[in-house]
Amino acid sequence: MKYKESNLDRSLKKWFINDNDHNLLRVIKLTEGNMRGLSSFSMSFDYPITAISGKNGSGKSTILALVCCAFHNSSNGFKLPNRKQPYYTFADFFVQHAEDIPPEGLQVFYGIAHNNWKKTDINSSKKGVRFQKRVKKKGGKWNNYDQRIKREVVFLGIDRIVPHSEKSQSKSYSKSFLNLGDNGWENDVKEIVGNIIGKKYDDFKYVSYSKYRLPLVTSNGKRYSGFNMGAGENALFEMFSVIFSVSEGALVVIDEIELGLHSEAQKKFIRHLKEVCKKRKIQIVCTTHSKDIFNELPDEARMFIENINGKTIVTDSISSDFAFSKLSAENQCEISLLVEDVVAKKLLLNVLPSSIRSRVSVEVIGSATSLSRQLAANYTREKREKIVVVFDGDQVRKEKSNLEYGHKMAETKDKLEDVKVWMRSNIEYLPGDTWPESWIIQTCSETIDILSSHLRVGEDELTDIIEQGLGAGKHNEFNEIGNLVGLDEQEVLNRFCATISQAHHFHFRDIINSIENKLDGN
């Protein structure tokens, strides 16, 4: 099923895309040069939490570094205890060995939602999303750090999960840590961390020595410090303490956000993170290798980055299934069928004969534009994979714009018509002229007797239930029907698709023939 946006998701998105008061990062573009394998790319931020995934070496950490360098900060702004400066420069991340070749000829644009742009800023106006530029000329240095828009930025690297018992400085000062008083957020942090890991804390505080600090808690009458905490527990206290310490509207950048947390804790973590982002107007940009993290975030929050023939490809709104099938590299099928959502996948798996199913994989991508981007990415590959992109039926009338978008994303000098011919040869459409849920339900209602036997519901009652389901709104139909027949949403979808396979299989004759021809090399 498509990700179901909660009221909190909608509230966060509405705030984020309309806020000009907190200097939110909305776009980042590398337009010239290469950085650690990153070629020119553009990434948009349309939700307060953005999770970036991709294989090792694809450029995720480099993007985090670019994000950190988008803003400046006042001299008295928040900084982590172990930092000298309350802001970041490229030197913080791009450390050079004597034999390293430094990146040169670089140009980075930052699109920032700001309410008081100066006349000198690019495309300036008083209010809205405009761009600032950072440049590193050949043989030169990065320009004008102090002219960056002011905003607190904090980077939390993977060192946050190193246990204090393994940190030499913590062990050296183990008897010297002292309580410096409360900060006012300790109760919020202990409640959140306790909920995430399933533990009740009676007390929590940080004790400090010099630039080092150590968490200290009481739970079930027992007092213990970070020396006796697990990596995940330590990391949660560190992350939420920072998030509550920074000013409202800060940008928090986190590398491999799931580290140290088990699956259930990861899910709870993201849910709490959403609440804190809403409360404190915080923006989070992170990397992840966790499908659980992706599953807890709406489409706009999921990014996938890959390097294809030396070119950086960013896929936004990618589905969790497709992103992590790419990461696992388990797909050894002859052809990949790429679809928009789980409904389309379930439908195809029901109607395809086993002789085809055993030779293909069906991958959920996430949207029509994501399908077009995958066509473009495959077109640019030196060795193209065998794919068939299966759009929903309502995309037939949008074919022209989808092909033009695919051509644009391919960034090729090949003629538009030549690219279109190749793309059309790899496109199919589901039956109907509407979205899959609506088509499935309306088609099944034509054979109400068969559907009735699959659902074990009387035909007259089922007719009324179908009407209520269709009235529930786009993509909510099977959830509503499930509530009315006492089955979960997935099971209802399965039984509707079984009815399609049994009584309406002929609608898929053309798709099946096309896939068979591709498998046979015709």
Automatic annotation (TrEMBL):
It comes from Marinomonas rhizomae. Residues 46-309 form the AAA+ ATPase domain. It holds the Pfam family AAA_15. This is Putative ATPase.
